[in-house]
Design brief:
It is a single chain. The protein is of the alpha+beta class. Helices cover 19% and strands 47% of the residues. Strand 8 and strand 9 (120-125) form a beta hairpin. The longest helix has 25 residues, at 2-26. The chain is globular, with a radius of gyration of 19 Å. Keywords: Signal.
């Protein structure tokens, strides 16, 4: 019967540890990584640029990425790897030949490059072009 008494206490400790771990992943090192980073804009009637929305889920980080080159492309949702302020994700080559992206976030700016063509992105954290 002693085991039954401690079961609720053990369950509470496990839930508290799980909550702390989830919060630690949501905002590593006190820096808010999640959010929208964009340089997407309208130029002479064309939608040009890139937008990355970094999200935290129960299954880790994801990026919703959209590229515009005259007209907006179909948004892609892909898993992301984060370590401190470093981020990496890979776009499906069939949808975007630029492929893997490697970068970091400093002072609200996502900076990095794509492996497929070496293109460098510099996206400021700001409201979405679509808002």
């Amino acid at each position: 019967m002693i085991r039954v008494r401690f079961l609720p206490a053990v369950a509470i400790v496990i839930m508290a540890l799980n909550l702390c771990a989830t919060r630690a992943h949501a905002q590593p090192h006190g820096t808010r990584i999640t959010g929208i980073y964009s340089d997407m804009a309208m130029h002479d009637g064309d939608v040009i640029g890139d937008e990355a929305f970094i999200l935290f889920t129960s299954h880790g980080y994801y990026v919703v990425f959209q590229h515009g080159e005259g007209e907006p492309g179909v948004p892609m949702t892909v898993p992301a790897g984060l370590h401190g302020n470093a981020i990496s994700f890979t776009l499906p080559v069939a949808a975007d030949p630029r492929g893997a992206f490697h970068g970091h976030i400093v002072d609200g700016i996502l900076v990095g490059h794509f492996d497929g063509n070496g293109q460098t992105l510099r996206l400021k954290r700001k409201p979405s072009y679509w808002q």
